[in-house]
Amino acid sequence: MTKQNPKSLRSVTAEDLLNRTFRPRFDVLSPWLRSEESAVLWAASGVGKTMLSLSIALAVAGGGRVGPWNAPKPLKVLYVDGEMNLQDVRDRVELLVGTDGILGTPEEQSQALSNLTITARQDQTVGKAFYDLTNLDSQNCLLDRVRRGKINLLVLDNLTTLTDDLEDENASVAFKKVQDFFLNLKRLGVATILVHHSNKGGKQMRGSSALETTFEVIIGLKKPSIARPGQASFVLEFGKYRAQGDHSLDTQTWTLDGGRWVTSAHLPDDPAENPFFKALKSGRYVSHAEIGRALGVNRSTALRRVNAICAMGHLSRAEVNELFRRAKDLRELDETPDDDLEEEELEDHLW
């Protein structure tokens, strides 16, 4: 392929830039994915990344919702799967559309089923060439299909199975062709989600740091400390997000319960990282309500978070009550004139 002559590159003055009218961008999945943006969703094998990706694809296609996120309107979605048996894909779609958790009305279900197109490697005849994001001819074929199909969201599942010639995912030079492909999708106004694997430890995304620079959004799924056999369950964390979000982007535990995603606040395994644990230990708060006000939540939420700390065995309820009592004693101590206290009395109140 002949490289473009740099002399022919388009430039614009600052004045012309301010006067230019741009194609309006719109929410594909609020609040974190808009048209012309790309995201990578990574996890270890078996954590639930394909189930979440299919849920997002169905929600966007039908104008539905996934957990706390919503798709404002039905859009055209193309889902490209590089490894899963099509029957397994069918079973997952059947589960997800079988309840009102993602698609709340018959109209949304109908829209989703007609707007979502799935192209799977295992559905092709033996020897049939499949999409390869490292091959320019294959890229152009997929770009043409996206253009002709007026696709709004492209989901690619996954990087390893859709890059036949990418021998080393850690090599930034080798990833350059893939980067160019995602830039072309942005020029077409298409939103893209790339599904990817974690490294061997399951704590980081696999591959070159060049991969991170390509995407506006990076989402990691990690195994929860308490496994839920037979259910897709993970801790979802945004590692990168360029726009303004809301509390739905907080680190949360996600669990698929009968086709419906249930989210709950994630409590770190290490209590020292838990803001509610730290608030209890600070000696500054005498009640759940005070902790809630300090951390920006209501009393009921603070109570649930503290109860969760107890359930994880980090503190007993008796210890929580004792911490509140000591905080009250310290507060009363602070309100006592210093001259009225001997040094030994002060030491008796410290813990």
UniProtKB/TrEMBL annotation:
Q: Which SUPFAM superfamilies does its entry note?
A: P-loop containing nucleoside triphosphate hydrolases
Query: What is the name of the protein in this document?
Result: AAA domain protein
Tell me where in this chain the AAA+ ATPase domain is found.
Answer: 35-225
Q: Which domain of life is it from?
A: Bacteria
Listed InterPro entries: AAA+_ATPase, P-loop_NTPase
Q: Which organism is it from?
A: Wenxinia marina DSM 24838
List, alphabetically, the Pfam families matched: AAA_25 (PF13481)
